[in-house]
């Protein structure tokens, strides 16, 4: 029996929280109710979205686990979990977001292919593990390297799971070598999530966490790290998770014409009240949501409108927890670098109303106003203004006649 393997059936799946909205059962893909996202700055393990491409891998004996590191490096190494945990432990607060978050809304404009994610294909976690740059030094690659001694320019992560898209092979992805060897990029090999051992759904026993980059590059169930000359040639780097203009469809797509997606764009969404809600009367309504941006760019502000975008109110950005969770870094600036912000705004509404939210990041990037302008055949990176419609009760509607 293999010590660590990707099963071909779904008979040994982990248990999941019953409140999750299941978008596909096999492989299991699910997201929490949207209002759960704004209950806590740190998303619980149970309520963190689940993204799988096959059955969840099984590790029979952690004492026999080995991470193989090699490729175009001066040395090779095989690391046990004990050896990895002997390296300096680093903790980073980072939001992981699926590239397909908010895909359903994009599909309403024109049909796209992919899991039908709503607003909750993301979560904010506290990740702890060894810096990738420390591990790469073991195989002879110094920090801040752009190329290895043998011509390596990228770092490939190989999982143990079995994906139909890879013809039953493992999930793979890569990042540039400079990002991998730069300690300030905070790329880690995580073995803890929210202060506890990784769960199976989230990559036990070891996963990559690449902050500020779409979740497809934070490979779970890690088995190999390879230093390679070019980008990973796997399916999810070369024939998926790429951005095409609205004019490209499945009849004329040329996958080689676009680069793999990395940093996610500025994003925000309204989590409360929910679209289609019924509220009594008129007056103040408290609107809550999340906002984030990729590449280490924080959120400068969130604007909320109660009249479909004619006038705007600036939302209050909530801070992360100040106490009670000692494993969260004390440096607020560092914490916000890779993490979302939760926000809320008290706005005057006259029902029925169309409420809109948009975010601006610290580089002055702003969300696209209309989803039609960013439509793409895979339905990725929908960061258009988020719009919800709020209804009045029947009594309120009657009074408006």
Automatic annotation (TrEMBL):
Name the InterPro entries on file.
Ig_E-set (IPR014756), MoCF_OxRdtse_dimer (IPR005066), Mopterin_OxRdtase_euk (IPR008335), OxRdtase_Mopterin-bd_dom (IPR000572), OxRdtase_Mopterin-bd_sf (IPR036374)
Q: Which residues form the Oxidoreductase molybdopterin-binding domain?
A: 53-235
Q: Does the keyword Metal-binding apply?
A: yes
Q: What Pfam families does its record include?
A: Mo-co_dimer (PF03404), Oxidored_molyb (PF00174)
Q: Which GO terms describe its molecular function?
A: heme binding; molybdenum ion binding; molybdopterin cofactor binding; sulfite oxidase activity
Q: Which cofactor does it need?
A: Mo-molybdopterin
User: Which pathway or pathways does this protein act in?
Assistant: Sulfur metabolism; Energy metabolism; sulfur metabolism
Q: What class of enzyme is it?
A: oxidoreductase
As recorded in UniProt, its EC number(s) are: 1.8.3.1
Q: Name one GO cellular component term.
A: mitochondrion
User: Membrane spanning segments where?
Assistant: none
Q: Which GO terms describe its biological process?
A: sulfur compound metabolic process
The yes or no answer to whether the keyword Repeat is present is no
| Moybdenum cofactor oxidoreductase dimerisation domain: residues covered | 260-391
Q: Which domain of life is it from?
A: Eukaryota
Keyword list (alphabetical) reads: Metal-binding, Molybdenum, Oxidoreductase
Q: What is the name of this protein?
A: Sulfite oxidase
